[in-house]
Amino acid sequence: MIRIQSLSKSFLGSPVLRGVDFEIHDGETVVIIGQSGGGKSVLLKHLCGLLKPDDGHVWVDDDDIVPLSERRLAPIRSKFGFLFQGAALFDSLTLFDNVAFPLREKRKFTEAEIAQRVAEALEIVGLAAAGHKKPAELSGGMRKRAGLARAVVGMPKYLLYDEPTTGLDPIRADTINNLILRLRNRFQVTGVAVTHDMASAYKIADRIAMLHEGQIHAVGTPSEIQATTDPIVQQFIRGVADISQEVHSGNTANY
Amino acid sequence: MMTLLTRLWQTVFDLLSQFGGVLLLFLDIVRTMFTRRPRWKETIEQVYKIGWQSQAVVVITGAFTGMVFAVQTGLQFHKVKMDTAVGPVVAIAMLRELAPVLTGLMVAGRVGASIAAELGTMKVTEQIDALRSMGTSPTDYLAAPRFSALLVGLPMLTAEAMACSIFAGFYVAVNMLNIDPAYYWHNMLKFTAAKDVAAGLIKSVFFAAFIALIACHKGFNADEGAEGVGRATTQAVVVSSLTILIANFFIAVVFNSIVPI
Ligand SMILES: Nc1ncnc2c1ncn2[C@@H]1O[C@H](COP(=O)(O)OP(=O)(O)OP(=O)(O)O)[C@@H](O)[C@H]1O
Ligand SMILES: [Mg+2]
């Protein structure tokens, strides 16, 4: 269980999170949607203590992680897998070593076990043949998938996905959706995914939460969210720009 | 007036917080070294990158400094018929001051820049966050190996520079200035002692620590974007070079008061 309590964070005086309250139950997958630049990645980074809030609490199981030092956070972070928006693969390591990294750091596995698990993880994301390559030799989508392999390889209790399907072709994206579903169904992984891809959101989410103006504006199951009459949510999920913007672009088209 | 004061305060505050950051990093590295398993693979890799690959630069710097020093002092001393004094002068200057300082500066430029650029890039591409998210401390995985590698590598490079400069000075003195090789060598050994070598090597240990700490600190705290990494790199080189030059003076003063020449 992850419980977020009146979480606030500003950067250089401009508030990004303004009192987020939310609870993520064990075994569910929550999708967070919201405007670009709205603080979704920032919120995700608070969940495993990569960022410290100005105010508020984050409870992971029974620990309030906000006051913990980096050293005390390490055992809590080992419960997490994190897919970064930009994949954040280590450029100096091959894909294989990248994916093996979290396993090697745990020092619980033999090299043979590691090799087997890494091969499996790369296979699932469709990169079985690319293990010897360095991140710089990969396309953006391939890097994203490798980042996903690295996040899931240790079978963590919590998985945080920052835009898991962005930049992938529709078929790959659906493979990733299936992977996320399987992790939940078969291994009871608790997932928090940030995405702009509404098809993916409807498919993988148990609940969808919308972050708007630094707060959780609406929460519900995919069908509740689709059926809501809330104008802000409706506008977001149907992907229409502001009327004023449409008029504006119509004007420029006349030139 | 007000803005001047606030600017001054800002500068002092920045300096202090930078110094504090470097000090905290140092304490964290020391703590890591005592509490974590050493990362041999990463450390050896860094010794290779930092030490082994810097040799060409250091050998050339040492040799040519020794040579030009021999030529210039030789021409002056020749006027007063003290040609054989060239040996001890070159040796003392190189061992105590020039070899450690010049090697430190060259390595600050070459290695300090590459450390800051590498770690800075890792910071802005979230690779540092990725490490932390896996429960691995960036100090343990990145800073400590570089710190240890410099602490081992820089004294060795300095020793190499010392040797090269002395032999190059000797070669120039004998072949271009026609100084008697036996006298040169004899006089040089007579006026130099192990403590001169030790002074130079101990200095280089301090310089190594400055370069590693400043470069890692600047890299870890790089601002977003390519510009931020560029700035971190430049600052790492400038600040560690200045620190070496300034610290050199104070270390020399302290040494001379402990072990008089
Ligand atoms: N380290 C930081 N320093 C300063 N500002 C930051 C930092 N990280 C995020 N921000 C700011 O916080 C705001 C929210 O950023 P965030 O990356 O969370 O957006 P997002 O919702 O993930 O957007 P996107 O969907 O485009 O990824 C942005 O305005 C960004 O400029
Ligand atoms: Mg984001």
Brief overview:
The complex is a heterodimer of chains A (255) and B (261). In chain A, 42% of the residues lie in helices and 24% in strands.
Describe the biggest sheet of chain B? none
In the predicted model, the low-confidence regions of chain A spanning at least 5 consecutive residues are 246-255
Q: Tell me the CATH architecture of the largest domain in chain A.
A: 3-Layer(aba) Sandwich
H and E order of chain B: HHHHHHHHH
Summarize the structure in words.
The complex is a heterodimer of chains A (255) and B (261). Chain A is of the alpha/beta class and 255 residues long. Chain A has helices at 40-47, 70-77, 95-106, 111-124, 140-152, 170-187, 198-204, 222-227, 231-238, 243-254, and strands spanning 2-11, 14-24, 29-34, 55-60, 63-64, 80-83, 158-162, 190-194, 207-212, 215-220. In chain A, β9 (207-212) and β10 (215-220) form a beta hairpin. In chain A, α4 packs across α5 (140-152). Chain A starts with a strand and ends with a helix. With 261 residues, chain B is mainly alpha-helical. Chain B has one domain (40-258). Chain B has nine helices and no strands. In chain B, α1 (2-35) packs across α8 and α4 (86-124) packs across α7. The relative contact order of chain B is 0.16. The model of chain B has no long low-confidence stretch (mean pLDDT 93). At the A-B interface, α2 and α3 of A face α5 of B. The structure holds adenosine-5'-triphosphate and magnesium ion. The site of adenosine-5'-triphosphate has 11 residues of chain A, from α1.
Detail the topology: elements first, then pairings.
The complex is a heterodimer of chains A (255) and B (261).
Chain A: E1 2-11, E2 14-24, E3 29-34, H1 40-47, E4 55-60, E5 63-64, H2 70-77, E6 80-83, H3 95-106, H4 111-124, H5 140-152, E7 158-162, H6 170-187, E8 190-194, H7 198-204, E9 207-212, E10 215-220, H8 222-227, H9 231-238, H10 243-254
Helix pairs in contact in A: 3-4, 3-5, 4-5
Chain B: H1 2-35, H2 40-51, H3 55-79, H4 86-124, H5 127-133, H6 138-175, H7 181-191, H8 194-220, H9 225-258
Helix pairs in contact in B: 1-6, 1-8, 2-6, 3-4, 3-6, 4-6, 4-7, 4-8, 4-9, 6-8, 8-9
